[in-house]
Write a structure and sequence with these properties.
Layout: H1 2-18, E1 24-25, E2 34-35, E3 39-50, E4 56-67, E5 71-73, E6 76-78, E7 88-91, E8 94-96, E9 99-100, H2 117-120, E10 128-133, E11 136-140, E12 146-147, E13 150-152, E14 155-166, E15 168-170, E16 177-183, E17 193-201, E18 210-211, E19 218-219, E20 224-229, E21 236-241, H3 247-282, H4 290-318, H5 336-370
Parallel strand pairs: 3-17
Antiparallel strand pairs: 1-15, 2-6, 3-4, 4-14, 5-13, 6-12, 7-8, 7-14, 9-12, 10-11, 15-16, 16-21, 17-20, 18-21, 19-20
Helix pairs in contact: 3-4, 3-5, 4-5
């Protein structure tokens, strides 16, 4: 007992630190662009093509913009950290190279980012808040963005962006959940919002996909689906896939680890009490019952170990898609010093009952024999 307690206390700081890790394995951050105050995005078309294994997805995005004034300018800023080198941009069919916004963008000659004061002015507080969902925001600096500079005449232009994104993996549930994410929330900074068309091309993958966009306006999620919007539908667009699990795993999860542990506890207690009764039937005069003492030590330990093993068993049956993110269930063994004496007292009372019952029976049989 002392060895077990000492080991758990030694490991606790390390286990607690490790368990603070996020259950979400980040993929590629992508988002609609920020646009300067002298241009409007009239139409945005996002085409998403997941690969057969749902590990990467090709994003093909077109922005139809209208520029008010001509000249060399930076019409768009892209938030795309971690993107690979295949992030390609075309302006009116001409390939354009991207640059990173320098840290001292305010000090550049000619103030090339003058059309983006709303991102780095006094109201921004030195950073930009990007809504990833209704309850989640991230904050970043302007220097984290990518840009291109082009000499654009006033009027309409088409900017096309193509890149491959890595999937996100969420381990917070029993089964891993995969997704591709695209933040639409930068549109809140646009001067006007035209139309948004989103196409999901699922012809390369056979997995059952889901989105947070509702029912498609045309097509279906098994082949190709398209949605049309004239306002921002959600802060973060998600294309999701979660693997199916087998029937045995579903049954085990329906009962839950707590349910299986309760059944194990009831079974072990019943078997222990039955063994105690049999022992007292043959050794009613013994002061101590080794069956009672041994069981009082083993039953709480087996129940607590059974609780931790149930998680491992369910994960094993789920297979490679199991999240295995349950915290450190082995720490339930800290309850052993509390459960052990409580269980010992309870079974000791039961053992006393068996002894008193034997004594009454012996007394009654002795009285009957004297008559």
């Amino acid at each position: 007992m002392k060895v077990l307690s000492s080991l758990c206390l030694t490991l606790l700081p390390f286990l607690g630190w490790a368990n603070m890790a996020s259950p979400v394995e980040e993929g590629t951050w992508t988002a609609s662009p920020f646009i300067n105050t002298h241009a409007d995005i009239m139409r945005e078309h996002i085409r998403i093509i997941p690969d057969a294994a749902f590990k990467t997805a090709r994003f093909e995005v077109e922005y139809h913009i209208r520029v008010e004034q001509r000249g060399r300018q930076i019409p768009l800023l892209f938030y795309a950290p971690g993107l690979r080198e295949d992030f390609s941009v075309w302006v009116d069919g001409i390939p354009i190279s991207l640059d990173q916004v320098p840290p001292h963008y305010n000090e550049l000659e000619g103030r090339p980012f003058a059309g983006f004061e709303y991102l780095y002015g006094e109201k921004s507080g030195g950073g930009v808040d990007l809504d990833m969902s209704e309850n989640e925001q991230i904050n970043f600096e302007l220097s984290e963005l990518k840009f291109f500079e082009a000499d654009l005449p006033a009027g309409a232009h088409v900017i096309r962006v193509v890149y491959n994104a890595e999937r996100w993996t969420d381990h917070s549930g029993w089964v891993k959940a995969y997704s591709f994410r695209y933040a639409l929330s930068p549109a809140q900074y646009w001067r006007s919002f035209g139309t948004l068309e989103i196409t999901l091309d699922a012809t390369q993958t056979q997995y059952p996909l889901a989105t947070n966009l509702g029912t498609p306006d045309s097509g279906n999620l098994q082949t190709e689906a398209t949605w049309f919007f004239d306002s921002l539908p959600v802060p973060m667009l998600e294309i999701r896939y979660q693997p199916e699990i087998n029937g045995l795993a579903r049954t085990l999860l329906a009962v839950s680890p707590e349910g299986w542990t309760l059944m194990l506890a009831v079974l072990l207690v019943v078997l222990h009490i039955f063994a105690m009764k049999r022992y007292r039937q043959h050794h009613p005069e013994n002061r101590f019952s080794w069956v009672m003492i041994t069981g009082s030590i083993l039953v709480p330990l087996l129940v607590l170990l059974g609780y931790t093993y149930t998680y491992e068993l369910i994960d094993t049956i789920i297979g490679p898609e199991a999240s295995r993110y349950h915290g450190y269930t082995i720490l339930v063994l800290f309850l052993y010093p509390v459960v052990l004496p409580a269980y010992f007292i309870a079974v000791k009372i039961v053992d006393w009952y068996f002894i008193r019952k034997w004594r009454r029976q012996h007394s009654n049989s002795g009285a009957t024999g004297s008559l």
